[in-house]
TrEMBL record:
Species assigned in the record: Pyrodinium bahamense
Gene Ontology CC: one annotated term: nucleus
GO molecular-function term, one example from the UniProt record: poly(ADP-ribose) glycohydrolase activity
InterPro entries found in the cross-reference section: PARG_cat_C, Poly_GlycHdrlase
Name of the protein in its database record: PARG catalytic Macro domain-containing protein
Name of one Pfam family that matches: PARG_cat_C
Positions that bind substrate: N237, Q251, Y292
Lineage per the UniProt record: Eukaryota, Sar, Alveolata, Dinophyceae, Gonyaulacales
A single GO BP: ATP generation from poly-ADP-D-ribose
UniProt domain PARG catalytic Macro: residue ranges: 231-384
Length: 433
């Protein structure tokens, strides 16, 4: 059944808003305190104790506004209130039917919003007026959706920079309002695999397509920088968009605030099954940053290329990485996401907290890219850890997809520290058969 998107309708929200738009950080913090106290169905228990005066929100808001638009605060808040009211007046659907994990068919697998509609939803989210329609389709610890309260109440550098990214989104939106960008279509698309993993394995082992490694480039720069990439891999949590906003700064959480339109997908998607991914197409990047985790800092508006990309939300295995089941699972995830892309910007997907080995995950993505027929720009994040050796071997031996997959599986029958050496040896064997 359809589920409501907004906590309050226009008239209900109007009763909570001041007569005049907020003109300062103090005014807006006070308004947020009032709205937070009035939440009838909190999407997330964001604060254990927050005074109704909004004082918990003030430090973060004040510093973020100073970084983004110190001279246009009243104009920014007036625009945010106008966009929020426009969405509540019917510019945005007031209810949605979330996707059931892994079940293809109904509701539609593709949902489209204009950039202007995204702006209306996110303006309401800043006013704590968006519910979590897919709440029960997520893990309990990932429930919350488009509720920014916990992040707004963080007084340290990281949450302040995350809020600055969101405010930069709204500030740039003021400049873009009234242009053709209002009509840019942001498409949230769920892709579910046909058949089972054994069917997918059969497809791989029957594919004689050559792996065109001249279409793959390793680099040490950030994943945002390849100007020719039309798609960007989100190192996703299984719960789409992590399911909620926190004060953290993983790769996914950074992408959430630099490309806020991506988060519209949280209205529809909960936890992804092992055979599905979610692609959010034609998302604009609004903010630039430096650092990662505790060193993350907002540094201004995004002024480079590409401005608009598809974001590929594909979660990787968390354990048993070298088993055939998990290798097939992750290659299938990457293949589903890569299909239809011209050039994918990716990196050490499935590593770090996920526990994968960089060279192993790189080789898996090479199989997926070869099946999908796309180019790859792979960021090593400054340390190749065997990815360069894997690429050199594939470039010199010219395997097809079957042979590359065979080498991955044979090399996986060892300790992870031996993967690269075993992979090169197995690739030599597979290409000579």
């Amino acid at each position: 059944a359809p589920r409501p998107v907004f906590r309050w309708g226009r008239d209900e929200l109007a009763e909570l808003l001041p007569g005049e738009p907020p003109a300062t950080a103090e005014d807006f913090a006070s308004l947020l305190g009032r709205l937070h106290a009035a939440e009838m169905r909190p999407a997330v228990r964001a604060l254990e104790a927050c005074g109704n005066d909004g004082s918990a929100f003030l430090p973060c808001l004040r510093d973020a506004l100073a970084a983004v638009c110190p001279d246009s605060v009243p104009e920014l808040f007036a625009a945010i209130l106008r966009w929020a009211n426009g969405a509540l007046d019917g510019a945005v659907p007031g209810s949605v039917v979330p996707w059931q994990a892994g079940c293809a068919g109904e509701p539609p697998e593709r949902v489209t919003y204009t950039a202007a509609q995204c702006r209306g939803v996110l303006a309401n989210a800043l006013l704590l007026n968006v519910l979590d329609p897919s709440c029960d389709l997520k893990d309990p610890q990932n429930q919350g959706g488009l509720n920014f309260a916990r992040m707004l109440a963080g007084a340290s550098d990281v949450p302040t920079s995350k809020v600055a990214c969101l405010l930069q989104y709204f500030e740039t939106a003021r400049r873009l309002e009234g242009t053709d960008d209002d009509h840019r279509q942001v498409v949230v698309e769920r892709r579910v695999a046909d058949g089972n993993l054994y069917d997918f394995r059969e497809m791989i082992t029957e594919t004689c397509t050559a792996c065109e490694m001249d279409r793959v480039i390793l680099h040490i720069a950030g994943m945002e920088l390849p100007a020719d990439a039309d798609a960007f891999v989100n190192f996703a949590n299984a719960n789409f968009g992590f399911g909620r906003f926190t004060r953290g700064c993983t790769q996914e959480e950074i992408m959430q605030v630099c490309c806020p339109e991506f988060n519209i997908g949280m209205l529809h998607a909960g936890r992804m099954s092992d055979r599905e991914v979610v692609v959010v197409r034609r998302v604009r990047r609004f903010s630039a940053y430096r650092g990662y985790q505790s060193t993350f800092r907002f540094i201004g508006p995004w002024q480079s290329q590409p401005e608009v990309q598809d974001i590929l939300a594909m979660d990787a295995a968390m354990s048993a990485h070298f088993t055939e089941e998990m290798v097939l699972r992750d290659i299938q995830k990457a293949y589903l996401a890569f299909k239809g892309c011209t050039c994918v910007s990716t990196g050490r997907w499935g590593c770090g907290a996920f526990g994968g080995t960089p060279a192993h995950k790189f080789a898996q993505q090479l199989v997926a890219a070869s099946l999908a027929g796309c180019q790859v720009r792979f960021s090593t994040f400054g340390s190749p850890e065997g990815c360069d050796t894997v690429l050199e071997a594939v470039q010199s031996l010219h395997p097809d997809v079957r042979q590359l997959f065979y080498a991955i599986m044979v090399a996986g029958e060892c300790r992870k520290t031996e993967f690269v050496e075993r992979f090169v040896a197995a690739l030599h064997v597979s290409t000579q058969q």
